[in-house]
Amino acid sequence: MTISVEDIVVIGVDPGPRPGIVGLRYSPQRVRTAAPAIIQCTINVALACIQAIIPGDVKRIYLSYEPFVMGARSAKVSTPAASGATARFCGALQTLAYSDNRIVLRHHQASAVKPWGSEERLERAGLHMMVKGMIHARDGAKQALYCASHDAGVPDPLSKRHKLAEAAP
Predict the structure, then answer these.
(1) What is the rounded CA–CA span in Å between residue 67 and residue 53?
(2) pTM to 2 decimals?
(3) What is 38-55 written as a DSSP string?
(4) Closest CA to 130 of 148, 112, 114, 142
(5) Which pLDDT tens digit goes with each residue over 70-108?
(6) Which domains does the chain have, with CATH numbers?
């Protein structure tokens, strides 16, 4: 798969009580984004933040998030209220995707995304320093890069194809 002839936007979301959201815009001419949207906020404003970074002039938007699964680990690290809020937020993401036919919704498990989204990959994509100190935004960046590479046809930041596209005029 190759990047389309039109711009695409990829939004990666790490859901939870403090969501991390990263929006990347790719042009056919460039494999790096000029000004990514990087947000780490409270869950009560996260959906509004996502809506605010969705551009009106783009025909294809990928929205990727880690599906929330209530299990033993999530029960240990959060309160029932936080778990409920996270589940509702994930539902709101689905509703947003269904209400805008430009949005392609993707779910990617943390077990696949986090190991793939290495520090080297973040650095090569130009995101490493931008998400420094924001662990949830860092996970949102990994989610966005993974979706861009695996679903949207953007070259993997560590690939030869990425280096060739970046060097092109």
Answers:
(1) 21
(2) 0.86
(3) EEE--HHHHHHHHHHHS-
(4) 142
(5) 665 554 555 677 788 888 999 999 999 999 999 999 999
(6) 8-167 (3.30.420.10)
